[in-house]
Write a structure and sequence with these properties.
The complex is a heterodimer of chains A (279) and B (298).
Chain A lengths: L1 H6 L5 H28 L3 H9 L1 H34 L5 H7 L2 H4 L2 H12 L6 H6 L8 H26 L2 H9 L4 H30 L2 H7 L9 H10 L3 H37 L1
Helix pairs in contact in A: 2-14, 3-14, 4-9, 4-11, 7-9, 7-12, 9-11, 9-12, 10-11, 11-14, 13-14
Chain B lengths: L1 H12 L2 H5 L7 H30 L4 H9 L1 H34 L5 H13 L2 H12 L6 H6 L8 H12 L2 H13 L2 H8 L4 H30 L2 H7 L9 H10 L3 H37 L2
Classes of the chains: A mainly alpha (279), B mainly alpha (298).
Chain lengths: 279, 298
């Protein structure tokens, strides 16, 4: 008891926590609860029909499939980019480092129309891809491109600090014991980075699943082919099908919460692992 | 302890220490391949889309570009975007400071849960962020009948757009402050109180100077997202031209009407905002690295 008191020397506990909880409840928790409460007013059959209609299922397949693939691509190239930024000297590095965060700062609608301008049939890159028979804009491939764009910084920014903190002594020890560079990489560096890579992967995936603005311009939004789940929610809302929109939203929310728990677990694993390496 | 300090200092000296060390140096051809692949990817996926915004915006020349920006609908979209950010960002700033203060300066049960809940809006699709407010305030929502009886419009009007923006930008400031204030601990504030400072003096003279860079960083990220939010705002806006169109929504309308040059002109303003955000961010990181370097010298 005495200890608790000792920590509360500082003022403002009641005020700051009270304000935090009130604001959190009003802006986030109560509105989110509305989704689930609204869902319970549906009969199970109606709910199931809304979330398992073929068009909706096709959208899950696209949203989750493309997000997964984009997260894999981002993990590979994000790692290489983080490696380049930490380990190599090259001209323009500071600019590259700063611009990695562009997808965080650039409004998604701007990214969407810009990617469409690049990959449309007569676009900067699209015209050459079209010539070799690859269609990007208005196909699932376009969705993938947009999701790669928005997910990249997550991997770079989770791997980069861990790589910076990585003690060179481990690699020195491996080298002095006769390990080749590739062996050191595979046995020492990559296992140490694994939690950070997985965290980055999960963050990129979670963001991609819910992404809307950057995707809808380049996707073409053809039902059953290039229609993402967030767009299904919007379409249902525009048809005043509030119950259907809410049901699909509830499914997505459950997935998001599961991902959030997974990410929290991965993050604490990353922290423990890097604390061990540093200690 | 000494080892930790040395490592931290070495880390700041950057890539040179890896390239000078035989054990951590990659063979030149590997460096060329990795740099080539990663920078190629960077150029293709990040740099090119950014350049395209400006080139497409200026394709029809400066006159069309400027005309798109001063046209009345564009001006009202810019004004609304600024208004929404001017309401949402300060509120989330106050919340961020309060949450970080409670979480980092006191011990209480459920703290970890609270941190997770604060992060929640990051993992919710922006479309759902808009939907939740429709469910609460919309015509068919919980408060809908009461609101329409009293002639209050929230959905398809500015208040709903502010709420959706607040939801989406909710965690930014708190998230920047919490790790920093956790690392700084409570000692300095406690010392200030013991030396006779009032609560407000302590906050202004001790806490604020310690957190100012992280605070600024959180605010600019929050602001960038508030001005650029598309999905959440799109659901609650109703897309009424000149009334409930923000800049990103205006870009969408122009684009769907095939006014590509105008769409990209307005988009380029948002891209400029993003660039300014990144520049400020880089500067802030540089300043805070410098500040923590000063702290370590003694």
């Amino acid at each position: 008891m005495a200890q608790v008191r000792a920590h509360r020397v500082l003022p403002g506990f009641g005020l700051s926590l009270g304000f935090t909880l009130t604001y959190l409840s009003l802006i986030v928790l109560i509105p989110l609860a509305a989704v689930f409460l609204r869902t319970t007013s549906l009969s199970f059959d109606a709910f199931w029909q809304a979330v398992s209609a073929p068009r909706v299922v096709a959208s899950y397949r696209l949203s989750f499939g493309a997000s997964l693939l984009a997260a894999v691509i981002n993990t590979v190239f994000g790692f290489l980019l983080a490696w380049s930024l930490v380990r190599y000297r090259f001209p323009g590095k500071r600019i590259v480092d700063a611009l990695v965060d562009l997808p965080f700062a650039l409004p998604t609608a701007v990214a969407g129309i810009s990617l469409t301008a690049l990959y449309a049939k007569n676009g900067w890159l699209g015209q050459y891809l079209e010539a070799v028979g690859i269609k990007v804009a208005f196909t699932p491939l376009g969705v993938l491109i947009a999701l790669v764009f928005i997910g990249l910084p997550f991997v770079v920014r989770t791997v980069q600090p861990v790589l910076e903190d990585l003690d060179t002594e481990l690699e020195e020890a491996a080298a002095s014991l006769g390990a080749g560079r590739w062996q050191t990489m595979r046995r020492i560096v990559l296992p140490t980075l694994l939690p950070a890579l997985l965290t980055g992967f999960a963050l990129a995936f979670a963001r991609a699943v819910g992404e809307y603005g950057s995707v809808i311009f380049i996707a073409g939004n053809l039902p059953m082919i290039s229609e993402i789940t967030p767009l299904i929610i919007i379409t249902k809302l525009e048809q005043y099908d509030y119950a259907g929109a809410t049901a699909v939203a509830a499914v997505m929310l459950v997935v998001s919460f599961a991902l959030l728990l997974l990410i929290n677990g991965l993050q604490s694993w990353t922290d423990r692992r890097s604390a061990k390496v540093r200690g | 302890m000494t080892a930790a300090v040395t490592t931290a200092r070495d880390a700041r000296s950057g890539a040179a220490r890896f390239e000078a060390n035989a054990a951590t140096r990659d063979p030149p051809w590997i460096k060329v391949v990795i740099l080539g692949v990663s920078l190629g990817f960077f150029g293709l996926f990040l740099l090119l889309p950014l350049i395209a915004v400006f080139v497409e915006g200026l394709r029809r020349g400066w006159q069309v570009y400027l005309a798109a920006l001063v046209e009345p609908d564009a001006v009202s979209a810019i004004q609304l975007t600024l208004l929404i950010a001017a309401i949402a960002v300060p509120l989330n700033l106050v919340f961020g400071i309060a949450a970080a203060w409670a979480i980092t300066k006191f011990d209480f049960r459920g703290k970890q849960l609270l941190i997770t809940l604060i992060d929640l809006p990051f993992s919710v699709s922006p479309v759902i962020a808009g939907l939740v407010f429709v469910l609460v305030f919309g015509a068919q929502g919980w408060l809908g009948p009461w609101l329409s009886e009293h002639g209050i419009k929230i959905i398809f009007a500015v208040p709903g757009m502010v709420l959706a923006t607040m939801f989406v930008t909710f965690p930014f400031v708190a998230r920047e402050l919490i790790p920093l204030m956790q690392a700084q601990g409570r000692d300095e504030e406690e010392a200030a109180l013991v030396l006779g400072a009032s609560g407000w003096e302590m906050f202004r003279k001790v806490t604020l100077p310690n957190i100012k860079w992280a605070l600024l960083y959180g605010v600019i990220l929050c602001n960038a997202r508030a001005m650029g939010e598309f999905g959440a705002v799109s659901v609650v806006s109703g897309h009424i031209r000149g009334l409930t169109n923000t800049m990103p929504l205006h870009v969408e309308i122009l684009y769907n009407e095939y006014q590509f040059a105008a769409a990209f002109a307005v988009a380029s303003l948002l891209a400029l905002l993003a660039l300014v955000t990144l520049i400020v961010k880089t500067y802030v990181e540089w300043r805070s690295a410098e500040a923590s370097g000063e702290g370590e010298t003694p």
